Input
Amino acid sequence: MLYLLSFTIVTGCVSYKVIPTKNRTMQQNPPSNTPANAHMNTTDFDRLVQRFDNPERDLWQKPGQVIALLGDLHGKAVADIGSGTGYFSIRMAKSGANVIACDVDERFLNYLKERIKSTDLGEGTIHPQLVSFDDPMLDKGSIDIAIIVNTYHHIDNRPDYFAKVKAGLKDGGRLVVIDFKVEETPMGPPLEIRVPPVQVKKELQEAGFKTFEVNDSLLPYQYIVEAR
Output
């Protein structure tokens, strides 16, 4: 998984509508040994799952308010980059989105597939997709919204990576970055690998994004940068 942490196929009793994506073989990526990923590579998978899906996370992550900030998701194509256990993917699909759950770790994608089987997604869908560390593998102009939560600091060569994200957005599409503030918080990555929003904005400008909105008050430990 990046951090954390995004068809008509029938699995069990759940039906999914395919969102067109680049044709890639599902295989395990080799672990990344960059400083931002080192602490992830040494953490047991089950402990990561418990951390990401801890009910107490809702208190500070405020998923309902974050999704409300995204607007009406019915019928929207959303890329959840670094989807992990599907914390946001599931919620966005329940709000009517067609979600591509992108992750570099096939274990999380398999976990999400099992989770989907027992989840009523309503009108939304989820398509788990294995991606590489340097490419979100989004078809050109296919996505309304790309969201990346607690994962931005794990990506190397971010201007190049997010230029690829931008290419995957439809005209008028937007990128939403949520990551930890560069200050002491009860949870989150080490301070030395956190990225301040001013740097996020600079890197996304290099990637080709033009307009930005920064919200550092909605969430207690994280900021939100919206780029178009």
